[in-house]
TrEMBL record:
Protein name in the entry: Arylsulfatase A
TM region positions: 74-93, 105-124, 130-150, 162-185
PANTHER family found in the cross-reference section: SULFATASE, SULFATASE N-TERMINAL DOMAIN-CONTAINING PROTEIN
Species of the source: Micromonospora matsumotoense
One matching Pfam family: Sulfatase
Keyword vocabulary terms for this entry: Membrane, Transmembrane, Transmembrane helix
Highest taxon above the source species: Bacteria
InterPro entries in alphabetical order: Alkaline_phosphatase_core_sf, GAG_Ulvan_Degrading_Sulfatases, Sulfatase_N
Residues covered by the Sulfatase N-terminal domain: 378-526
Length: 687
């Protein structure tokens, strides 16, 4: 009998295995599989990286304005965000093909699972209370389940391949629909010039501070605390203090344009001259020389003024800060996803500016040895305060006392970790103390401004304006400037200092009218005899006060919040522990603690302008929450702080030592004590 014929059936390959030619190279079908895999990776990277990062940056045009990014810088950054992460993962996956088609298939499944897990972390942080390890475990399970589903069924892959168009969509939304689009594609508009009227046109000196609530300046009697803030008190003593003044938003990109346009925030536009073409700079620009130092806005058009001092800028800093921002976005723990974390005023030394002259004789400030520590923007502003043949507007927006908090009252700087919370038990008190210390340094800067104005003869002739764009709440559990803080602590978020010294004014006075920041532009216009040629929401202080007592405030443009109440009272100050300021002798030891950067105490050089004034670390887990720790430098206790509830950083403590006199040149001794009943101290061994 003839042998039966062998019938060969076609081999079924899994969809995830790319066919290869006999020499190992992909066939046409294999290339199609690789393209499908690449599309799936691009889709997932777009959802996990491109979309969240461009979304945050698109809503933060001030990030690009602060770093003075050009359109080319922004476009390059966007291209990198949209292309490089996906391309890197695709190439890494393609390289696994060298180990064989089955290894390549498994590697692709693993990549899909990891990207799904990363996406699950971000979604889980938004929609669940899970954080840390529990969130990571859930995300890994989601990623594993998604990878199995992707390998077993074809539908998930088809959906991902359609979603591969996502990065293009996200880029388009950023470029054409986000508030940041004005920075990339500005529209040319010169803005309306004011009309000069009869009367004098005095010099204008305008300082806008950032994140300064009025209550931080007040003493127990409701007046400016002249002991802590002598220069603010001096300004109040020779100007009109609009004590019931409020900003119109807790966010600078909305608050400052309202100040300079006289209009309430109506749309979420970038604080850029193309979006606000009619503002103080254009109104005075035809008559006045403009010397403007802006920080996170660009409201003065290039035709009116240049920005002589800029922070660190260029593509490199954009990439670095965007990478740090992505790390916070993708973290499985709560973190401040805010581009403003990168907004730090560079010092005069960092920018390479000489200190402004003349050096004042102020030994308490030690300006002669610490002048390089002053912000470069302030140095340049101070140097420009000179007499001129033409009317001049001297404008400064300074990110002080805005975080990052880095200055002691003396002007010396200190280092602090990036992950210290600002809210919660123990932390909010630390945040307020650091804010107040930086405010006392800001008072020193104001003193230098007033002395320079007097020395140059500008003070008496000028209209001098000082205010802040918004405040900030240090209310427990409602720290910050968001809607929760506005609801629970409006007196700290909305009410700000507002001083106007008219030319020739000598005596101070207090005006408690219902002042809102949209009133500032019409007030300046009346003082300098210029008519503003556009409709204003504010009213000049030369006019009768508005009838309504309620305040208009905007957490979001176009969404008015009505606030009631008058001038806020100062919050009850925290009472210093009786141990603070006392000297400590030998104490029994018992327990341990870990202190970060302990070596900084071995070589202290106060004349260099930096001190280890923030001490932070951890204690063993058996130490109860709320346990008091006394921190001593060279035998003198500088702070008593609690151990805070455990978080992702462990069982932590942080102590702020704002008194320079605790430190000496050379080696300093740091001691940490556990405070027991009756104030008994037990020394901890430090590592």
């Amino acid at each position: 009998m003839a042998e039966p014929a062998l019938i060969s059936a076609p081999v079924r390959r899994p969809a995830s295995v790319a066919p290869t030619a006999p020499d190992g190279a992909p066939t046409a079908a294999g290339w199609r599989v690789e393209l499908r895999r690449a599309a799936e990776v691009v889709a997932l990277v777009g959802l996990a990286v491109t979309q969240p990062l461009l979304d945050v940056l698109g809503r933060s045009p001030d990030f690009f304005l602060f770093h003075r990014a050009t359109s080319g810088d922004v476009l390059t950054l966007v291209a990198m965000v949209a292309v490089l992460p996906g391309a890197a993962v695709v190439l890494l996956g393609a390289a696994t093909r060298l180990a064989g088609v089955r290894v390549r298939a498994v590697a692709h499944t693993v990549v899909v699972g990891l990207l799904l897990a990363g996406l699950a972390v971000q979604v889980g942080r938004q929609v669940t209370p899970l954080r840390g390890v529990p969130l990571v475990v859930v995300a890994v399970l989601v990623g594993a389940g998604g990878a199995v589903a992707h390998r077993r069924w074809s539908l998930p892959g088809r959906v991902l391949r359609v979603a591969a168009l996502g990065p293009l969509v996200f880029v388009g939304l950023f470029l054409f629909a986000s508030p940041a689009s004005a920075v990339v594609l500005p529209r040319a508009h010169e803005g309306a010039a004011g009309v000069a009227g009869p009367g004098s046109h005095p010099p204008v000196v305008m300082i806008v501070l950032d994140e300064l609530p009025l209550v931080s300046l007040l003493g127990p009697d409701g007046r400016i605390d002249a002991t802590r803030y002598p220069n603010f008190a001096a300004l109040a003593g020779g100007s009109t203090w609009y004590r019931n003044a409020t900003g119109v938003s807790g966010w600078t990109p909305y608050a400052l344009p309202a100040v300079l346009t006289g209009r309430y925030p109506s749309t979420p536009a970038a604080p850029h001259y193309s979006q606000y073409p009619d503002n103080l700079f254009t109104a005075l620009g035809g008559l006045y020389d403009i010397r403007a130092q802006e920080s996170i806005t660009r409201l003065c058009p290039p035709s009116r003024c240049e920005q002589p001092v800029a922070p660190e800028q260029g593509l490199g800093v954009l990439v670095r800060e965007s990478g740090a921002l992505l790390g916070r976005i993708a973290a499985p723990v709560d973190s401040r996803v805010d581009p403003q974390e990168s907004f730090r005023e560079q010092t005069a030394a960092e920018v390479g500016l000489d200190a402004a002259e003349p050096v004042p004789a102020d030994p308490k400030f030690r300006w002669d040895s610490l002048n390089d520590n002053q912000p470069a923007r302030f140095t340049n502003f101070l140097a420009g305060l000179r007499q001129s043949d033409r009317p001049t507007l001297h404008f400064l927006h300074l990110l002080m006392p805005h975080p990052p908090w880095a200055y002691l009252p003396s002007g010396a700087r200190y280092e602090a970790p990036d992950d210290l919370p600002n809210d919660g038990a123990g932390w909010v008190d630390l945040a307020r103390a650091r804010h107040l210390a930086q405010l006392r340094y800001t008072d020193r800067l104001l003193g230098e401004t007033l002395r320079t104005l007097h020395a140059t003869g500008l003070y008496d002739r000028s209209l001098v304006v000082l205010t802040a764009d918004h405040g900030v709440s240090f209310h427990r559990d409602w720290q910050g400037r968001g809607m929760g803080a506005i609801t629970h602590a409006p007196g700290e978020v909305a009410w700000v200092p507002m001083f106007v010294k008219e030319p020739g004014q000598r005596a101070g006075r207090v005006d408690d009218r219902n002042w809102e920041h949209v009133d500032l532009l019409p007030t300046i216009a009346d003082e300098v005899h210029v008519r503003v040629p556009w409709r204003l929401d504010g009213r000049s202080a030369k006019q009768p006060p508005r009838d309504r007592a309620e305040k208009y405030f905007y957490d979001r443009p176009g969404e008015r919040v009505v606030l009631s109440g008058g001038v806020p009272a100062r919050p009850a100050p925290s009472t210093a522990h009786p141990l603070v300021g006392t000297t400590v002798g030998a104490k029994p030891s018992g327990g341990t603690a870990t202190v970060a950067h302990l070596g900084a105490f071995d070589h202290v050089d106060p004349a260099a302008g930096e001190l280890p004034a923030l001490v932070w670390g951890t204690v063993p887990r058996q130490v109860p929450d709320g346990t008091l720790l006394a921190v001593a430098v060279n035998g003198r206790i500088g702070a008593v702080v609690p151990v805070v509830p455990k978080d992702q950083g462990g069982r932590r403590f942080a102590a702020f030592l704002p008194d320079d006199h605790l430190f000496r040149a050379g080696a300093n001794r740091l001691d940490l004590y556990r405070v027991g009943p009756g104030g008994a101290l037990r020394q901890l061994t430090l590592s």
